[in-house]
Amino acid sequence: MSSPASPTVVVGAGIIGLSTAWHLADLGQRVVVVDSGPAAGGTTTAGAGFVGLWAAGYAWYWNESERDVEQYGIDFYRRLSESGNGETGYRQNGNVWLTVTEEGRADHIPPFEDHRFRPAGARTLTPDEAAELVPGLDPSAVTAGFFHPDGIQISAPDTAAALVSALRARGVTFHEHTRVTGLEARDGSVTGVRTAGGPVIAASRVVLAAGSWTNTLLAPLGRELPTVRVVASRLVTKPFGLPGTLPTLMLPELHGLWIREHRGGLTYGAGRGYEPLFVGGSDRRTEPARRPVRPDLLDAMREYLHPLVAGLLPDAASALGADETATQGVVSMTADRNFIVGRVPELAGLVVAGGDNESGVTHGPGLGRIAAEISVTGTTTLGDASRYDPARFPAEAPSEQDVIGLMPARREADARRAGAAA
Fold first, then answer.
1. Closest by CA position to 359, among listed 230, 213, 206
2. How far apart are CA 191 and CA 361, in angstroms?
3. Which of 107, 112, 130, 153 is close enough to 57 for a disulfide, judged by CB 3.0 to 4.6 Å?
4. Within 13 Å, how many C-alpha atoms sit on residue 327's CB side?
5. Cα separation, 101 vs 104, whole angstroms
6. How far is residue 67 from each of residues 62, 264, 340, 383, 413, measured CA to CA in Å?
7. In angstroms, rounded to a whole number, what is the distance separating the alpha carbons of residues 248 and 267?
8. What are phi and psi of 304, to 5 degrees?
9. Given the DSSP bridges, would you call strands 31-34 and 8-11 parallel, antiparallel or unpaired?
10. What is the C-alpha separation between 82 and 79, in angstroms, rounded?
């Protein structure tokens, strides 16, 4: 049975769970973080580590609430970098969206130009202006660009490790390599978490931030989140002298290609390296491997991307495919492409923080703050909590296949075309 002395338990030590623990500590809570592997050792370590104001022209289905969460993340990482708690790789290099056809320019640049959240200093780029801003870019390979100056880059694994170190210094307890198998409850309230081969960890409150494993713990309560788990891949080249000032590049026409500098080389990825877990027969309640290994997806991504990246950045051609490394993780996409953070109606004292929508690094600090505040006070001072409330969905979730069918189009241009066709 829990008592007033029992801690708040956070299940999951990825960026969202660590951020939740950070903000719970800010609220004066005693915090225990439990993870089935090493702290900061799951999908977060596969994060590409670029952060931006995606709600300001890129993610058309988000509004000022998500913009505020994004800005909070940018500010949080800057403060963490300045605190000296550890190396985070923080750089304010900005984000550049590029188009490679005239149709792409017409589809993807105006939403940035006309957006009501357009940040100060944002501007449209001609191909030559883009080449001045992007070291090594061939201007003949693009038709236009748009620059957001406030976008940042971090090292996701280094930042997560810095958070773990800072949290330990603040008195947060970690139980690593401890798999949570269920929740303990009494009189309709959560009282702790059960662990595999170990004792129950008593809790006054619990926050589930277990990413793609969250539904495994919610299912016995009669609640499932409408998410689809997706293997996400990225490639990393060897160093070839690329300057660290390269902005993060986003090319929505090319299956969502993104490119950023990594230790003098490139890290990059696109949709060809993604596949829903259910394609391999995995059920929503089945716990996937913490770090999947899908060489077929990597091969498909290499075949598609190598000529495209070499055309954009000719100096990278010799490094593509030569001693490249790869990393893969499992992200959770939601039925409405928005996050799921809030109280679980079926059990008092239980809060869920999930549905990263492949942007957990950007939104993790803000979502962690929202989860912590809701857990302790029942409300939040950041964003619009109603947009993330788990109760906006029925308790019984559709299949992962059906979730994909419910998700709004990724690009605004695609949504416009679908609307016209309907």
1. 230
2. 30
3. 112
4. 18
5. 5
6. 8, 31, 16, 8, 20
7. 10
8. -75, -40
9. parallel
10. 5
Instruction: State the pairing for strand pair 325-334/227-236.
Output: antiparallel
Q: Which DSSP helix (H) or strand (E) runs through 106?
A: helix 102-108
Q: How many angstroms separate the CA atoms of 11 and 36, rounded? A: 9
Phi-psi region of 188 (alpha: psi -120 to 50; beta: other; left: phi over 0): left
Answer yes or no: are the C-beta atoms of 338 and 387 closer than 8 Å: yes
Ordered by start, the domain boundaries in the chain are 8-46+157-227+335-421
Q: How far apart are CA 15 and CA 24, in angstroms?
A: 14
Q: Which residues, other chains included, contact 384 with Cβ-Cβ below 8 Å and sequence gap of 6+?
A: 63, 65
Please give the structure tokens belonging to residue 43: 């999908």
Residue 257: strand pairing partners? 251
Report helix, strand or coil for 214.
helix
Distance separating alpha carbons of residues 357 and 355, to the nearest angstrom: 6
Q: How far apart are CA 289 and CA 280, in angstroms?
A: 13
- Give the mean pLDDT of 265-272: 95
| Torsion sign (Cα): 155, 160, 162, 163 | positive
* Contact present, 308 and 258 (Cβ < 8 Å): no
Strand runs (DSSP E) across 14-69, as ranges? Answer: 31-34, 50-51
Q: Is the pLDDT of residue 337 over 70?
A: yes
Question: pLDDT tens digits for 48-69?
Answer: 899 999 999 999 999 999 999 9
Interval 230-248: pLDDT, tens: 999 999 999 999 999 999 9
- List Cβ neighbours of 398 (8 Å cut-off, separation of 6 or more): 226, 335, 406
- Distances from the Cα of 412 to the Cα of 136, 262, 378, angstroms: 29, 30, 34
The CATH-assigned architecture of domain 8-46+157-227+335-421 is 3-Layer(bba) Sandwich (3.50)
- Closest Cα partner for 43 from 21, 24, 70, 16? 16
Q: Nearest 5°: phi and psi at 57?
A: 120, -15
Residues in the chain: 422
Q: Cα separation of 335 and 357, whole Å? A: 10
Token representation of residue 329: 């993780």
Q: What angle do CA 327, 287, 390 make, to 5 degrees?
A: 100
Residue 24: what pLDDT?
A: 98
**Chain position carrying tokens 């409300």:** 379
Taking residue 236's Cβ as centre, other Cβ atoms within 10 Å add up to: 18
The CA distance from 76 to 78, in Å, is 5
